[in-house]
Each structure stands twice: as C-alpha cells, then as structure tokens.
Design brief:
The complex is a heterodimer of chains A (276) and B (124). Helix content of chain A is 66%, strand content 14%. Chain A is an alpha+beta fold. Chain A has a 6-stranded antiparallel sheet, with helices on both faces. In chain A, a hairpin with a 4-residue loop joins strand 1 and strand 2. In chain A, helix 1 (3-118) packs antiparallel against helix 2, helix 1 packs parallel to helix 4 and helix 2 (124-139) packs antiparallel against helix 4. Chain A is rod-shaped. By secondary structure, chain B is of the alpha/beta class. Chain B has a single domain (5-121), classed as Rossmann fold. Chain B has helices spanning 13-26, 37-46, 63-72, 90-99, 111-121; strands spanning 5-9, 30-34, 51-54, 81-85, 103-106. In chain B, strands 2-1-3-4-5 form a 5-stranded parallel sheet, sandwiched between helices. The chains are: A alpha+beta (276), B alpha/beta (124). At the A-B interface, helix 1 and helix 2 of A face helix 1 of B.
C-alpha cells in the first residue's frame, strides 16, 4: 500500500467519523426535540384539563344563577297571580256591593216616591187610592183590602179593596182572630207557607197594622199576590214598615181634615142661617 | 245633545212618578205623562217620541189597543214600546209582543229591570 493510499483512507475515516458524529448529534437533537414535544404535549393536556375544569365551573355558576333567577321569577309570578286573584276578588266584591247599593238606591227611590205620594194630598179617597196603588205596584198584591178602626165600636171595618168586592171583606173586632190579633199586638203577620195558602177572609196571608207610634188605626190584609210574585223580598218588608207608618199618618190626617172640613161647612151653614 | 223624548202612559199617578223618577236617574230625558191610551195617542200626535212606556189596564183605552194603534202609525213603526203591567200570564205577554211591543215587564215594579230594558232598547 502506498503512502497516498494511506492518506486517502485516513481522510475517508475522518469523513466517516465526522459523518457519524453529525449523525449522533442529529440523533441527540431528535431525541431532545422528541423530549420537548412530549413535554409540550403533557403541558397542553394539562392546560386543556384545566380549561375544561374552569369552563365547567363557569357553566355551573351560570346555571345556578339562572336557576336562582327562575326561582325568583316563579316566586314573583306567584305573588303577582296572588295579587291578581285578590284584585279579582275585590273587583267581584265591589261589583256585588255596586249591585246591592243600586238595589238599595232603587228601593230608597221607590220608598221616597211612595211616601211623597202618600203625603201629597189631604183627600181621604185619594190617600186610600194611593195606598192601593202602592200595594199593587210596589208589593205586587192582587187581592187585598184596607180596614180602618172604628174607635166607637172597636172594630175594623173594610173601606177599600182591590181584586175583591168590598162586601166580601169581614168586619173584625180588635183582638179577634189573625187580623184582630195583629192589630192588637201592632205586629205584622206573615203566613208561614205561601204555597199552601187558600184564601180565607178571616185568615189573610199578610196583615200590616197601620200605626202612628203605638196607636193602630187600621190594617192592610193581603189574600193573593200577583202570579209572577212568588215570595216577599227584603224591599217588601221595608215597604210594609213604610206603609205601616206613612199610610197611617196619611189616612189619619186626611180623615181629620175631611171631618174638619165637614164640620166647618156645617158650622158655616149654621152661621149663615143665623146671620140671614 | 237634544234630550230623548219619552212618553209614559199610566193611569196610576204613583206608578207614573216611580217610572219618571227612575228614568230621570239614568238620563236627562224629556218625559211626557199620559193618563190613558187616548191621552197617550193625543200626545203622540202632537210631538215625536223616542220611547213609549205603557201600562195595559187603563180606563178609556188600554195599553194593548194603544200599542196596536201606534204600530199602525207610519211615524211610530219602529219606536220602542215597553209594557209595564200586572198581567203576568204568558199569553198576555205573547199578545203584547205580537201587537208590536218590544219589551214586556211585569209588576211589582223592578226599577233595575225597567232601566236595563230602556238602555237596551235605546242602545246606551
């Protein structure tokens, strides 16, 4: 082997060594890169886990907040519904009260007219006619009569009626039977069961004594109501009370007035006779 | 706004007062009163009315005759007529409505019923 061959072999060996060293360095670099990448993956996985955990917490916090809000809104809704219910109940109550007040108002208007009419005249016949009209139109009686007390005989004598003949009505002693008993006690009388009532002139379905304070001057007796009038209402009882007082004073004053007029004309006639 | 004219035909002054008083509470009506059917017809011919309320049982001319005569008058073909009466039988009601009455109210007087009917017939 020549010297030049040896040198060439040596160069080649050095080249090979250099190449091997580079390969080793490259391998080392690759291993390092591999290690770095592995580390990076681990880091990324960890951060991903952390992200998931943090995100879940945020979500659960939002959900809790929303659930709380829903609960609050539900509570508010229940309160509002309660208020609406109370308002509706109040509204219904007001509506009922309005109807009651309206009825009361109408009743008072009717009572006012009835009482106004009763005291609008001093004519005895007109007063009795007004009493009959009130009993027909406001109470709804079809057959009834008005009996006045004759203080000389202490008997109740019929003076006006509707739906009946005056002659059909009885003359009743005070304290005798239902009519006389009602007059004596001064208490209104109402039959217990209207459905089973059969007309009996001595036993009416209603007796309303006409009273001036405790002094009874007569009585209204009712035997039959209008077909459409099935029962008495609270307004009717008010009317009965009104009739008992106002009709009595109207009858009493008109009778006194008629008597005084009659006496006056008698006296006037007597004076005229004397002075002629 | 001109007041609506109402004719109340009723022989009982007390009943007339009750009706007039009730009507005045809901509106400023111009109300004319008549004692019976003949008086009512006389007043109907003298001026034009927007509503007629009448009883049935009245002297001289009853309410049914009045309704029938009013409906034969071309001026009163459509004017609302309300009957207020003690006659509660169905046949009386049918007869009155057949003659041309628009509403039939039975006594004893129920103010609310009268006012509701008046409001309904006059559309207010």
């Amino acid at each position: 082997m020549s010297q030049s061959d040896d040198k060439s072999n040596l160069n080649r060996a050095e080249d090979f060594l250099q190449m091997f060293k580079k390969g080793a360095e490259f391998t080392q670099d690759l291993l390092k890169e591999n290690e770095r990448l592995r580390f990076r993956i681990v880091k990324l996985e960890e951060s991903l886990k952390e992200c998931d955990q943090v995100g879940g917490t945020v979500l659960s916090q939002d959900s809790a907040r929303l659930l709380k809000k829903i609960e609050e809104l539900e509570q508010e809704k229940a309160e509002i519904l309660g208020r609406v219910r109370r308002a509706e109940e109040e509204n219904q109550d007001f509506a009922n009260r309005y109807v009651e007040i309206e009825e009361e108002n109408n009743m008072l208007a009717n009572l006012y007219i009835a009482s106004y009419q009763l005291h609008s005249t001093l004519d005895f016949k007109e007063v009795t006619q007004i009493i009959l009209e009130i009993v027909i139109n406001l109470i709804g009686a079809e057959e009834f009569g008005l009996l006045l007390l004759d203080e000389k005989t202490n008997r109740l004598e019929p003076i006006a009626c509707e739906g009946l003949e005056l002659g059909q009505l009885p003359s009743v002693g005070v304290g005798s039977g239902i009519i006389g008993g009602s007059v004596k006690s001064g208490e209104n009388y109402f039959i217990e069961s209207m459905e089973e009532y059969q007309r009996d002139f001595l036993n009416p379905m209603v007796c309303i004594p006409l009273k001036i304070k405790e002094h009874v001057i007569g009585v209204i007796v009712i035997y039959k109501l209008l077909t459409q009038k099935e029962k008495f209402t609270s307004v009717d009882y008010e009317l009965f009370s009104l009739l008992a007082g106002h009709a009595a004073t109207a009858v009493f004053s008109s009778r006194l007035y008629s008597e005084s007029e009659r006496k006056l004309s008698t006296i006037q006639g007597f004076i005229d006779l004397l002075t002629k | 706004m001109t007041a609506l004219k109402v004719l109340v035909v009723e022989d009982s002054p007390t009943m007339r007062q009750l009706i007039v008083f009730a009507l005045k509470r809901i509106r400023n009506f111009q109300i004319v009163e008549a004692n019976d059917g003949v008086d009512g017809l006389k007043k109907l011919s003298a001026e034009k009315f927007d509503l007629i309320l009448t009883d049935i049982n009245m002297p001289i001319m009853d309410g049914l005759k009045l309704v029938s005569m009013v409906r034969n008058d071309p001026n009163y073909k459509t004017v609302p007529i309300i009957i207020i009466t003690t006659e509660g039988a169905a046949e009386d009601r049918d007869r009155a409505l057949a003659l041309g009455a628009n509403a039939y109210i039975t006594k004893p007087i129920q103010t609310i019923q009268i006012l509701d009917t008046v409001k309904r017939l006059l559309n207010f």
